[in-house]
Amino acid sequence: MAAAATLGPAALGDALAEAAKKGRPRFPHPKNPAEALAILKKGNKRYRKGKLEFRDYSPVGEDIANNQKPFAAIITCADSRLSPPLVFDVERGNVFVSRIAGNSVDTGTLGSTEYGIKVLGVKLVMVLGHSDCGAVKSAISVANGGSYPPDQYGAIGDVVGTIVPPIKALPPSGRTLPKCIPLTARTQAADLASRGPIVKQAIAAQKIRVVAAVYDINTGAVSIL
């Protein structure tokens, strides 16, 4: 099971308090996308083992109330079972997170990520899907002929609709959750990487890298696609 399940709320609070008391060391801010991705991978490994350290790679130090310098931007789902700082074992101020059901690229998540790149100087952008995603389940339903009428579901249909096309392109027999979750993350990452005038240009200049990944809620593992 995931580390979060092993380390209960009380124990997690105690760990944070103890770490703050001791004064956690700060680690070097990553210089490039490869270093940033390596940090996330290592942090997830600690998380899976239940050995959380809440590492701080931000150079702002005690000025965190007035400044931020995250090293990665993450577009992920609004699902309550997924917390990127915890999953990657980093302190607040290290990852710049945009959340929307289905971790899709819309005006809000795109603009937020562009801010992370242009203003905050993140080195890595990750589109992070997850197992048992309700939005992807709904998109599969729509691809198979279902619908979300606005008079009953409000704007839910609009959110789900953004992730339907790649799923609908699959043959009906291939529209399974294990296939559609990584497909959705990959499609969104490719879409994001093609967007100008900030993301595409930053990739071309080798300032950032955009990756797709999937978080397994049961095991706590993040798989880079």
Could you explain how this protein is built, in words?
The protein is an alpha/beta fold. Helices cover 44% and strands 12% of the residues. The chain is built from 11 helices and 5 strands; from the N terminus they run αααβαβαβααααααββ. Helix 4 links the parallel strand 1 and strand 2.
What's a concise summary of this model?
The chain contains eleven helices and five strands; from the N terminus they run αααβαβαβααααααββ. With 225 residues, the chain is of the alpha/beta class. Strands 2-1-3-4-5 form a five-stranded mixed sheet, with helices on both faces.
Termini gap: 21 Å
Strand order of the largest sheet: 2-1-3-4-5
Beta content: 5-15%
Strand-pairing-aware structural class: alpha/beta
Average pLDDT metric: 92
Q: Helicity, in percent?
A: 40-55%
Major β-sheet profile: 5 strands, mixed
Number of helices: 11
Order of helical and strand elements: HHHEHEHEHHHHHHEE
Sequence stretches where pLDDT stays below 50 over 5 or more residues: 1-6
- Estimated radius of gyration: 18 Å
How many E strands? Answer: 5
The shape is globular
